[in-house]
């Protein structure tokens, strides 16, 4: 009977470079905001489809979602992030955000 040996790698070192920390934190926060933005957008579209909103509400929601998308783009540019970088890979579950 052969015995397998376990190799342990050295613990990963944390990089405390302020630029990297800011970038990584911004990516995480913007990922959560983008996920919520997409969920709110889908819910708003469902409400429009079923006729649950009046014309003024539809207009306000549409403008708000467009402004939020614009702000997200500005923040991504500010931190040098692409939309693809905000889409976390969840392994067997696939990407966090839809890619449609």
UniProtKB/TrEMBL annotation:
Q: Which top-level group of life is the source organism from? A: Bacteria
Please state where this protein is localized.
Gas vesicle
Pfam family name, one: GvpK
Keywords from the UniProt entry: Gas vesicle
**Signal peptide location:** none
Its family? Belongs to the gas vesicle GvpK family.
The protein, known as: Gas vesicle protein K
Specify the species.
Streptomyces spirodelae
What lineage is on file?
Answer: Bacteria, Bacillati, Actinomycetota, Actinomycetes, Kitasatosporales
């Amino acid at each position: 009977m052969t015995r397998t040996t376990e190799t342990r790698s050295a613990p990963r070192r944390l990089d405390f470079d302020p630029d990297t920390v800011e970038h990584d934190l911004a990516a995480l926060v913007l990922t959560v905001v983008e996920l919520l933005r997409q969920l709110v957008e889908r819910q708003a579209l469902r409400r429009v489809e079923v006729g649950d909103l009046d014309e003024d509400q539809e207009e306000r929601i549409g403008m708000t979602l467009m402004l939020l998308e614009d702000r997200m783009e500005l923040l991504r540019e500010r931190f040098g992030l692409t939309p693809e970088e905000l889409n976390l890979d969840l392994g067997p579950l696939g990407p966090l955000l839809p890619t449609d």
